[in-house]
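hey so i finally got around to running the thing on that chain from the lab meeting. sorry it took forever, my laptop kept dying and i had to restart like 3 times. anyway pasting the input first so we r on the same page abt which one it is
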Amino acid sequence: MARVDVIMPQMGESIAEGTVSRWLKQVGDAVKRDEPILEISTDKVDAEIPAPASGVLAEIKVTEGTTVEVQTVIAVIETEAGAATAPTAPPAAAAPATAAAPAAPRAAAAAAVPAVSPAVPAVSSAVSSVSAVSAAPSGASEPESAADRLRSRSTPLVRKIAAEHGVDLAQIPGTGHAGRVTKNDILSYIESGGPPPTPPTPATFATSAAPPSAAKVGQSAVAHPAVEAWPGDRTEPMSKIRKLTADHMIMSRRTSAHVTSFFEVDFSHIVGLRARKKADYKAHGANLTYLGFIVKAVADNLRRHPVVNASVSGDAVIYRKPINIGIAVALDWGLIVPVLKDVDELSLVGIAKGMADLAERARTKRLNPDEVQKGTFTITNPGVFGSYVGVPIINQPQVAILGVGTIEKRPKVLTLEDGQDVIAIRTMGMLSLSYDHRVVDGADADRFMADVKRDLEQYPEGAV
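ok and heres what got predicted. didnt touch it at all, straight out
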């Protein structure tokens, strides 16, 4: 018999830890190589982790709900001699080898969600293999420098938090393996009266297109007061994605000066276009939805109104070159925002196919980490649940988010060519734009929305 370690994989360059969400196999169960044995959750992705070898799950070292650093051994599989195993990483490897999920077209999710849209929420990703890593003991040891000690006592995430808060890691007693300072250690230190945060420089933000740091999460965590449970109540711990969503929403409200504008759009013209073109789109494997038209109109107008496609970096404004639109997707286990890249370069059919693809892969946990990053604008669609209109919270570090209300038939006053007013039945829908008033003025937001409304109401048939 041989023993193969199952390790916590590194699901992205900046990810330093993961949480065991659920064990799909139990001790004593037979497993096959590449068969999913557990689910993990990180700051950016949820993932099903496959077995690195065929055999029997002999030991579970990390229980559900526990967060550990990457490369931590979380389980052990006993295999028959000569059993097939996943390739192992070289002893000197700094992170476990993971195979990327199958490539898929760039796309954005078609499903829509209530008016919240976190940037950090974890997104699903399938990992095709997880390697067992067993670092061989090094030979003669050399004197350790201060920088080496810092790296050995912390993860990149912890060092980032320390830098943003002006904290010397040497001041913090570590509770991790071999005295390592964990994320909980540094956040507890900060919340218990450590030095106040050092304001980050513009360069810090300019080089970071990632979701909010754990430092910000730590700041907002103190705002969640404990509430007494009453007899008969049911108490469940928040999932990792729910905690990230809660922290990110609080951080966004604290960061941006939120203002919302509302525009009513007459979709009656698009109703006719869909009726005439829907069958053609289905023949090409695409679903011609209202949301596809909205995404296309937004993408075309973000180029004309660059301040709506920007980010705030200290005292500077970054005007993003790409048009990358994230579309929030409601899943049974939380909320995620897959990102459709370079949308302004896609046709309507390309957008329709892309949204369907990412929506499906989001629900089946097959998204890649890079497919939920570098969004420049977000759309959330609570209208699919019947909401008339919503006031969404901005998806940091973006400066605007569009909310789509339900699209339905309503009475509307129309003026005929002879000047007479009549009441007609039209297909109407409300769009809401929440924007960061630090950089986006009301006139900027309303001009953008007026152009989106015009393009939707006068969409050229030749472009469908």
